[in-house]
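Morning F.,

Quick status update on the modeling queue. The single chain you submitted on Monday has been processed. Sequence for confirmation:
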Amino acid sequence: MDLNRAVQTVLRMLIGPLTRIGIDYLARRGKPEAEMTPEEKDQARAAREIARRAKDAARLTRRLGR
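Structure tokens below.
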């Protein structure tokens, strides 16, 4: 395996979890769970669900495009 493919593989392994962390952070708007009101918790939960559905739709679209 050449160096370029190895770098791409490592980057993919890092970008996936970092993306999930970023989406969760944005859904919470930077607040820790303990400081959130019940309404904010519901909104954050809904935002994570929407992000999960968008990710699933993107995966399905890529699969159908093959």
